[in-house]
Structures
1.
Amino acid sequence: MKIHPDANEGLAHIGALSVPFHDTLAPEDSRNTIVLIHGTGGSAKTHFRTLFPMLAARYRVLAVDLQTPDGELTLGALTEQVAGVIDQQAPARPVHVVGYSLGALVAADLAASRPESVASLTLVAGWVRADTQQRLRNRIWHRLFESDQDLLREFVTWTAYGHPFLAGRGDADIQALVDARTFPEGIAEQMRLNAVADLTGRLAGITAPSLVIAGAHDQMVPARQTRLLFGGLPNARYAVIGSGHAVPHERPAQLFQLISGFVEDPAATPADEVQEPIFV
Amino acid sequence: MESTPMGHPASDSPVDVIIVGTGFGGLGMGAKLAREGKRSFIILERDEEVGGTWRDNHYPGAACDVPSHLYSFSFRPNPEWSRMFAPQQEILDYLRSVARDENLLERMVFGAEVTGALWDEAAALWKVTTPKGEFAARTLVTAVGHLSEPKLPVIDGLSDFSGHLFHSAQWNDEIDLTGKRVGIVGSGATAIQVLPEVAKVAGEVVVFQRSAPYVTPRPDRAYTEEEKGLFRKMPEVMQELREEMFWSNEERYAQRRGTPTLVSAAAQVALDHLHRQIEDTELRRKLTPDYTFGCKRVLKSSDYYPTFTQDHVHLETGGITRVEGNRVLGRDGGSHELDVIIACTGFEATDLPIAYRIFGRDGQPLSERWANGMQAYATTAVHGFPNLWIINGPNTGLGHNSAVYIAEAQIDYIMAAVNFRDEAGVPALEVSGEAEDAFMDRVDHLAQGTVWLEGGCSSWYVDHRNGRLTTLWPEPAYTFRQVNAPFDPEPYLTWSPDEAGEHILAGVR
């Protein structure tokens, strides 16, 4: 089933790679374009199944399924895929780029290397450079990936979701989350990239209005790491969601509210300020 | 007026504000006015105590579908909620405590059902008639709820039923159901709460179902003493919980946008629930809905389906042709002899009875203004009805989140409007007809593509007179507050004397 009834599925050919995308473009649609970039081990469908339709009610949405080529994976190789899809599908106007997790690093890399393509930048649960806490988890992940993928499913479930989210569910729900965990092709290379990718020094040149969103209970990319993006970006505001790393799964509606508000009026929260959660 | 409670003005001296109703809407409005302390006001209540729908709906098993830490006032968090989904009695006790602690009781007139409310243009006052006397105020706020007038089913011979007949919202406590043969008409939000409780005592129960609802598990649990202690000591923990509940509910909105992947995933949760709880294939078939998930209200219960596996509980899906004596005759030729019929058939939602009792400029009844379906600017103000504000009126229902959140947004709007009017020194505010129509066009536009209009079912969400979504807000709840809470005087008109000394309508600024 398509991610959304209005989404056209297509391929962009970038070098030797065919990169799938999902695009709600319709004739006469002059609405803003939002480009969604998923994270490690994900796809548009697995990471944005709820966010995509919510955004599609207000915007043209273009989501990319990142491919992992043979050989050592670099941030630049992923950024090139997103740039290629944008060039093919949405070359006319700058687009609003939303990147989640590893996708946030790709989005920032895109904004730094092709500022003319990016109208605004939203970085969800991203980071600048993995610290020792992150690299320790990364090492455990690789060892379990080699030795015990059943245990890895449980470990990833435990680290991916916020503790309030997990604690609020029954044992059967937790088991369903564990069982649903898959390790798609290329995930180990993406995990290696997570440990070494480095945006240090590159953020200062990004002029696009930016929104940095952290998960308060994120154990994979702790908020203390995500907020360094806020520290480095010259035109950024910062918001925290009461979620673990799986922000688009745990709080898609709040993520939608933040992205939509930001795209409508990027300066509604002035640069350098922390955006308070809306009244509930 | 003999029964004037201490502290509120006698009927012949106007007050600033009259509030009608003492449910969440009326009490919330009263609490905000009392806290501000700038205006005199009274609250009219048709019954003898507060509570609105939570006073009336005291049937066995009555509880809320929205978790209690969310289904409560933002300005009055309650660390004592016993369960995630508190029972009716506890919600009613909460409302009583709000009335008491916000000093609202002394401003209430009980037994004061509004029989007429007339806008007196010359005096710029609302004149309100009740059995307890006549009252007058600059501002009239109705908060009578959209689920307050019980609706009985139209069945031939029902009124001559020789046993006992009552509506779930008018539960007859005099009748002991122990060992009785009980018919439950309906299978909506009330019936699924009533059935498991009635089945515990009745000798035989027959459920007459017109269309099967989607039922999802109800993850209810009691809060521990440690949790309640923490809520008392660190109220911010309650607020975090409230936000988690709010955003979790908001996610369900995405299912209503007619996205097949999400709709089918959500429907599957309900169907899996049915399959886990009911093994009999024929019973499963009867309990399987035949319309798109979310089109009608999605229900929550973990004990509804299992009730049907008991030998003394029966499900009839063939429809009722008529009632004769104590027998209910089915379209399929079957019949049931019953001692009691409980109508769990819902409420008048699209045609609000209070509209027949409100008369605006030139004596126009609100019901006439709404003859083709109700509509209001910002969900609260109606052209032709100066200084009237409606809480829980058109487009204020939600299929997925807390009604208290909605009422609070409206209350904030009304407070700002009344403050603006008084600061501007004008006697009345009336929204322009153009602004009201433009607002409704916007709501219509937002409703396109939602499951309520395109899900292929008939529900109380859509007004059959005009095919419009008039009871629900078609967007996520948070945008209700964004769109409808901030007050902008731009679309408002007021009276000002022109050169001839007559009253004309002109923009406020």
2.
Amino acid sequence: MSLETRLRSVGKEARRTQAAPVGDPVLDTHEKTIFEKLIGTQAFWVTMALLIICVVMSIREPVFATEDNFFNITRNFAFIGVMALGMTPVIITGGIDLSVGSVMGLVAIVCGLVLLKQPIPWMPDWWNDATWTHSWWMALALGLLAGVIVGLINGVLIAYVGLPPFVVTLGMLSIARAVAVVLSGNRMLYDFRPDQAPKFKIIGGGQNLGLDQLFGADFPFRLSNPFLILVVLTITLGIVLRMTGWGRHIFAIGGNEQAANLTGVPVKRVKVQAYVICSLSAALAAILSVGWSGSANNSLGQSYELLAIASAVIGGANLMGGEGGAYAAFIGSALIFVIRNSLLMAGVDSNWQGLFVGSFIILAVVLERIRGKRRE
Amino acid sequence: MAVLELQGISKHFGAIQALIDVDVGLERGEVLGLMGDNGAGKSTLVKVIAGNFPPNGGEIRIDGEVAHFHRPVEAREKGIEVVYQDLALCNNLTAAANVFLGREIKRSIGPIRWLNHGAMYKRAGELFGELKSETRPRHLVRQMSGGQRQAVAIARTRLSNAKIVLMDEPTAAISVRQVAEVLDLIRRLRDSGIAVVLISHRMPDVFAVCDRVVVLRRGRKVADKAIKASSPEEVTGLITGAIHVA
């Protein structure tokens, strides 16, 4: 058969197949209902696991279901939850930020130094003498600024210089911690100005966002400020990821960075923004933590980067990029801390906690693999 | 008047001459097959037209006007759309999200802008309908067949008022039936008056849809003739160098 006749036969074949319905028979074409979509998500199953643990614990340990314990657990996981929220966009782009724990330590020290009663020997006199430089809002602003600067350095090195996120943020983990130790003179800072410190501490240590005092009303519930801030941020990030062009671009970068670039997504800028948000969330967690504990320690946040990453991953974020969500980060951090709390109450040696958290991370990734296989 | 005219286009990367003095013209509603062996300069030529890199010499004219592209976005603004070899799709997003990637439809109240999901699903559905593709806007690209992916990539070019669509190996690595689907998509683009440049290694595809074929060999244009006046044997000879010039 000559090439030409073969060509003609291919043409015929093509025409014949055009006439046949073109739908791919392998593909399931029915639209999924909301319920089907819901049970397909990891966050849903984590929520179920969390509810079961809570029910079992409430029956076994009367202390578990008390208002005080609820107040404490929700506050304790809020710090990690806020960081996990910030980590989420970074993970969705396919990156990782290992420096968030150290950023917490750095920001805590920056806030502590601003609020400190004694003058700082290496700062100029005008700084030490002025009062506005030691106000609670200055501590807040400089703390957040420190977070933004670290995020900018991470983001620019990763997006514009093109270094791997793992390496850059691993370096930053060491750098930010070292700066925190040096700035603090390796001391714990707790001797704060009595006029400004209480105002700062209320941010992280208060409850009900001060609304009950504002309205002079007695609220029927008691929720810590960190937890309420976490809730607000979860809702905000959820809306941003789903409803804005920026959120869409974050997912696109994680799905196929090259494609995102070719279609005109400002990949580099969006990546820098993701790392800045991540560091900023760590800074906020540090500010809340300093407010709650009333002291600034340069070791604050050590190994928290792992908890933040674990929270996002347990909730369903994919470390390969392209998947993740605000609620996932929220529920992931909740699960980790409820398990910790439950183990403590059940009298399990606290040294075992790491084993459980680690197992859950691996389990989460295994589940993700299984779901991924079924999808293909 | 030719919608696209290339005159004496040259491009070199260091000492390597990728394109030497290439002239190509393209009419409205014409499908041009661009053929050549690996390294003959096909992809380089497409990238020059798409604005990925400026040529070292020569002129690009769109509708008779000289154009200088420094970035792909500038070429897109002039009505040049590209369907890339690897399709440039995000597997984790829906078909509609991929079609509108980088050009999302938004609603706004004052400075607050948010995605208009409904409008994007609707418009994407219409585009797939125009292309007579079974692709559904809400489906994830991950779950799609090669032909449906092509439909998504091609639908993207229909968003703007594209005059020229460049397709880099759209039929590589998909099944025979899906190839037929893609060739159909190309015919629909042609019927709506769009000029298509099809880069392909597959002789049957080029002879099935193209009106004209241009053959490149080592950066030089060695043939430019109507498909009816040529044959696969001749083109094969031109690609390999067995036939010198036609």
3.
Amino acid sequence: MAFRQGIYSIGMALVQVETLSNGLTVAIEEQPWNPGVAFQLLIPAGATTDPAGLEGATNLLEGWLWKGAGGRDARAFAEALDDLGVRRSSGAGLEASYFAASFLSDHLEKVLTLYADLLLRPQFPDDALDPVRQMALQELASLEDEPPRKMFTALRRAVFESSHGRNPTGTAQGLKAATPEDLRKDYQRRFTPQGAILALAGGVAVTEGLEAARRAFASWRGNAAELPQARLSQPHSIHLEQKSAQVQIGLVYPDVGIEHPEYYASRLSTQVLSGGMGSRLFTEVREKRGLVYSVYASPGGVKGYSYLGAYAGTTPENAPATLQVLAAEIERLQEGVTQEELDRAKIGLRTALVMQQESARSRAGSIANDLFLRGRVRTLEEIESQIMAVDLGRLNRFVAENPYTRPWSATLGPAKLEVLA
Amino acid sequence: MKTTASALEFKQARLENGLTVIAEVNPEAKSAALGYFVKTGSRDETAELAGVSHFLEHMVFKGTEQRDALEVNLEFDRMGASYNAFTGEENTVYYGAVLPEFVPRLLELWSDLMRPALRPSDFEMEKNVILQEIALYQDRPQDMLMDWGPSFIVGGHPFGMSPLGTTASITALGQQQMASYHARRYSPSNLVLALAGKLDWDRALDQARELTQHWPKSEAERSYPSFSPRSGEVVKPYEKATQSYLSFFARGVSAQDERRYLASALAHVLGSDGNSRLHWALVDKGLVESVGADHLGADGLGLFMVSAQMDPGNEEEVIEILRREMDRLEAGGVTAGEIERAKNKLATSIVFGGETPMSRLFNLGLGYQYTGRYQPLSEIAQRVNAITPSQVNALLEAKPFSQGFLFRLVPGKP
């Protein structure tokens, strides 16, 4: 049945990856000491592949799925999961939808069977769609009451000319236009096992987990849906006018991709910039000048395109200085970092890796993410050795050759800022 | 717990200066977490000092006589520590997690920081940061809902003091006021040092003794005025809101009360995500963007809290349904099936709460601050497992929800 197999070692644990003949990839990390199991089921259907005119279709489908599946109505289905004590979350994202669950190991088989009902045998009752739509419209409206999120939503729309700029919640027009028939057809097309990933971590043996996954999902069928290529605009600035107490500032800089040979050098340089409270941005913007409560830069991206996102929130009178210092610090990175900064960056990244190993939920999430973005799971040893292999000369060569310049920028606040010469 | 339960070991000691040190040692963990739990928060402030606990928490990171702010931040980063602090109505908590080899260094750093220098220049600089933080929350109505909400039900009780303070109270606050607040409240007898994960207890204890022996003692009392919750309703128009936000509060049980597990189960039945009375009545009908219910067991008092966010056009209907569901709960009680499901989910949370030293640390430190004793996860699991519907229904006999307080934060000019 399996055509691709591999065993990766992560510390003490092993990750086994197998792709079923229907296209579903199953990955399992054994944590024999763990009485619980967590999984993340990722399906590459998200806002980027919402049909034109039906922006928000994935969001509606994700909500509608929970309105009854298999032989159970919505309430009976929720009760069946609660009977097994399943803690769960799910969501429609930009590029993928995800279903996460954690529970006690003994229930694995039953829980997977219920999730197979959810995805393979949804009832999609007509009369349950409108409440889902009403919720989604309220979610969209609430963006107005969350200025940081509102700013980033607008900024992403400015960066991408492709559908990667969409708001995963959808548009009012798209949400209102979707009919039950449209959505059922769309579901058949996009929620398929091709490209889907089921990552399990915790107290589960590989053979037992694979068997359970196979029994639950082997009958799932469907063709792969095409994923769009990211297309970018030319870097530019936008401003959103709002009578807010704070000005929100967001910057997006092009970055090297995850397959770039110096990818880990770029992660270390980001860590120098914003890895801890001793990092450059926190020190210069908050500690020395008291300009903000929150300032950071963090790697972001979509499949095929990576960027560095930066954020600061400040009162209107401090906004020009904040923007100036923020951008200057990011661009100054090309002048190089010190050995001490590199040492701190390394220990920060390594510690985060070790701590991730302690949580089944984090592991399931990272394994699914690696498989989606890279098509493989990185081992802890691999990441660690890549990080350790970056010495000061190599890092400083990298930052000199790959400076962060010419960002897209967004501001939200009472008045437009003079942005970046 | 399958295999780790036998490996866990609880340790405790009281030092001569009054500081309590506790640890849950887990030799199988890959990391360790430790922190100081200070029994102080906004309820220990006067109106004049509003926000001082939280501001002081920020000032702790500004350094001591031997370290300036930059050196503090660098030292955390040199250990690769994952760390932070938070301040609430009743507790100020400083915490961090590191690889096991850095435990002595992290302990030294946090212990040093508990005696901050409070330099006037840092004080003025950090005041700006606090004012920025207040401005951030002011732009988010859902944050202001929770900042203002509790004050209505608790009336003049100090539990209603906002942890954030106000722009005016923070602006007016002086460095000397903070220094004297610190001297009063950060007495060793008012702190618990908690550690969890892979660590050497004897070494940590010796080190803590040496690091804190010079800490002066003071009387850090907390007042416990009687708690008489008010019932009623307040509507507050807020210019920055485009959606409507509701919070409903009702009398619950305290963090010391053995019935706190029952109260959690009851809140679960009323408003847990995905399957609860309010889920089916409001979320399933598309009337709200979100709704949730929770129980907060605090020091000597407790509150049930329900909060919801919705389109202003749905507000009246949502309030009517909310009241109807709470009436129905009080009149008919919970069912055996509802309690069974709530218990199953709580059991899963307990298991996953034991995964990392960091998540154990909060449970360990806060639990000890409130009850003065250690509760292993296995004991909490037993307590949850023993819950019966009739015990939960007994909580409803006093009709807490009929006497609650509704706070509505709605769009509009004040």
4.
Amino acid sequence: MSFSQFYTSMDHFSIVPAVMLALFGCAVLLFDFIIFPDPRQRKWLLIFVGLAEGFTGFGLYRQQAWLAVNRAPQIIGFGGSVLVDGFAIYFNWIFLIAAMLVAIVSYKYLEISGEHHGEYYSLILFAQTGMYFLATGSDLVTLFIGLELMALSFYVMVGFLRGDKRSNEAALKYLLLGAFSSGFLAYGFSVLYGIAGSTKLADIRVAIEARPAWDPLVFLAMATTSVGLLFKISAVPFHMWAPDAYEGAPTTVTAYLSVASKAASIIFLVRMFMGPLAPVRVTWEPILAVVAVLSLTVGNLAAVNQTNIKRLLAYSSISHAGYMLLGLVAGNQTGINGIAVYMAVYAFMTLGAFMVVVALRRQNIIGDELDDINGLMHKSPCYAVLMLIFMLSLAGIPPTAGFLGKYYIFLALIQTGHYTLAVIGTLYAAVALYYYFKIVRNMFIREETEMAPLASSMGLRVAVSIAGAATLIIGIFPEPLLRLAQNSILR
Amino acid sequence: MDQHLLSIVLFTPLAGLLVLLFLPSKSTGLIRIWANVAGLTGFLISLPLVMRFRAELPGYQFEEKVSWIPSLGVNYHVGMDGISLLLVMLSTLMGFLAILCSWSAIQDRVKEYYAMFLLLQVGMIGVFISLDFFLFYVFWELVLVPMYFIIGVWGGPRKLYAAIKFFLYTLAGSVLMLLGILTLYFAHFQQFGFYTFEISELMRLNLPLATQQWVFWAFFIGFAIKVPMFPFHTWLPDAHVEAPTAGSVILAAVLLKMGTYGFLRFSLPLLPTASMDRTIVQILAALSIIGILYGALVSLMQQDWKKLIAYSSVSHLGFCTLGIFAMNPNGIAGSVLQQVNHGISTGMLFLVIGVIYERRHTREIAEYGGLAHVMPKFAIIFAFAMLSSAGLPLLNGFVGEFTIMQGAFEANWIWAACAVPGVILGAAYLLWLYQRTMLGQVTNGKNLVIPDMNLREIAVFVPLIAASIWIGVYPKPFFDILRQPVNQIVQRVRPEYFAARAQAPPPEAAVEHAPAHTGGAE
């Protein structure tokens, strides 16, 4: 037996983006320690992240090309523990964009906060490695390790501002609740393993299909797994951590957490429910419907009274999770397609909104209170108009990208006859507008209360502009994105 | 040329807006001039539509169709029939006049102000010419954002409340409408195997009554809030009172018409069975009549000049919806004409308030009295506006209301009987308003020193007064333009209508086929 049997070129090909991310993550750590310890010379960190993402992107591109050329549904690695399909690659692009933009805007932010360390960037890369396995894993162990790798990186990043009480508190809360939910997930996984005698998702599906839909053991596994999964996407009633973690974390980490971590958890969730748990759809569909409605209710109603922008966006992200869950409740092609489209536009608009909050960060001002954004139109019209685009998009007003996500979800609900859910979803869209426009009102109508100029940097301006342009262009010419999403889920 | 004419009309304000964005915000004079030039160009460029429009042709004209989002089956498809033509012309004219009348009223954030108006204009024109439901929805929502800012930034004391109320009300209605649209869209896929938002394609649908009813109510909420019909009208007084003059003008003259237009373009032709459903028609007629009477009664007791006109809009729009749901050529043609009339006369009334508000900064009716002595030109113009709104024969309001009444009478004489007091009350509150503000002795010393209207202000009113006399004296061209589209709608909803008339005695049939005859004032 030679080594090559355990690690074939196909195996390598199936995880090459993750390898790149992990290697560069380690390299950042080492270089930070040995070669460039000078705290004033930090530009190389961004170059490393850029290289890492470049190689990762190249790997993803190669994989995509391979799938297209061979007309294969997926790349199988490690005996089926890793399956790279179009859907996984699509989500990995989202992770990549999020990681890149977050890294760019973090530079200035960390400098102002006085916590500029190399680990931060390697943590971004390690988290992304975990996400890669969440998107491609098709084995309980791979998935769990991916999830933990991502979660652990985030626990550290949330508490990255060591001198800040809020950041520490947020990290501890997130860690405790996160570990608890991981426990539930691991318990569910163990029951699934008990049912199937295998950790492969495909085998589990076969085993569950053989049992009756209301089998108590399957129900137990489904219920406990759902708790872990729903925690990760911060769906009600497992959402308690989100507002605190979002508020306390450095804003850049909040952006990464709310976009990339959520995207990875969503694809994990979709894989579990449309894969091994698909045969028992009758049992989880009503549960998810209730959770989705609760998320919409709590997310939207709690957001109305928030005075902190990060908390407000945290509640809004809970409600967006509710919309995506509705896509899963509908569960048809349109619904899954809708989740993919929704996630992509959600990534751009949420990143953009958080990046504008990052721009408000100045010496001694965190810039996350609603009043901090007062009169932004006067201070910096460009940021204000971009923020307006993000808010319109989050509220789902055409012709911004956010409308398309909602469009697909509503269409999927109507196609599957869930009229009540559709009506609830639309009415909450109107509620959501109210609190998004509180931000708009403060920016455009209120006079400025905080006179200190913005500490904007070139990188930040570019990153916000990219997010803004994407939000608007996807809204007006959505065809390429829709094609991409559609092709990614055709099997 | 004809093929792109509508797109040119649609995107001229957008081009003006883009240039505006590059003007330095300090040089307000330049911005004002440019915005007025853009507004005037937008109006002039829409004039060829009138000249090239051929009233005798059925169907849509100036059509342009480009694939926009193929994977959703969405096209950029624009075109116009007689109804759209009148409303587009109303939009371009009122859009320009709104910009013109703001010359001295707006002093801060001038650039943003005009940018919002130009953006609003794109949305308004787009709504009236879209033949693709998705495109329509995009423009429908696009209108909300600039209007929110116009009320919220340049409005009165309670502007924040009024602005968000306007936005939330309309949005809640329009998302429900979106569900209705998606239901039709999916039903079309089920019946024909492909997805499309084309109105003409969706009209081929054969839906069971229950589905039609549910879609009808979804549309109804969207459109009724916009009109606004009686119990959904509460946003209107707030929005009107708080908005700056030009905002009120556009809101009354054009934005409200989007709702009635929606009924005519979508509810009736797409859901003919539900639209003819007895219960639905009776509910809608009842709501319209309640709106007419309630709006008029509330107007009577207003102390605030602008609020009075705002409630009068509820009453006038009640006539428009009553005409629509009379479901006969007279009713619908009268309704469309009355929409234009309301745009002209209520637009004038709001402009009148703007003129006086700029001088005195109050809208309390009790603050005024005897203004005719101080401002004779103003008094004459106000008299025109007031009489045209009250429906004096030989002015535009009379023709519209008369035709609607004729249609309502034909459908059900009780409706007409119930609506007639609305006309009388309308004359009452307007004449009383005029009496309280204009006639008698000058009671308030502050009013003695206000200057009369200047040339620019008068220029704003000239085209409107001309239009109001034209429609009042010789409405035939308008009815000619409306005949084809109106007959198509009636034919679609009540296929038996014309067949039955054809067998009836000739004189009656002649009346029905020539609604222009009812102009009466010739």
